[in-house]
Amino acid sequence: MFRKIWKSITSVYLLYELNTCIYMLDPWEKRFVNAFIFAILGLLIFSSYTFLPGYTRKLVNAFLPAHSALSDLDLDHQRSMEFNIH
Q1: Has the keyword Transmembrane helix been applied to this entry (predicted)?
Q2: In 31, 38, 42, 56, which residue has its Cα 20 to 30 A from 49's Cα atom?
Q3: CA–CA separation, 5 vs 13, rounded Å?
């Protein structure tokens, strides 16, 4: 069972190396490229988790009819008018 899992993990990593062409790099270059790729992937996941839910909610509220008198966009507009932010 463990060998089967290990074999599948190594085959996926081999495909990753072949697709990104890092199989021909030195070991230190592989670590650098992998760290860079995982840092970019981590930042992408973090920013999507942090920023997209609010934008998605506003986008949905802009295109769908509001169920209440004040939707989120109306509340944001009302708050900006209270503080004279344009």
Answers
A1: yes
A2: 31
A3: 12
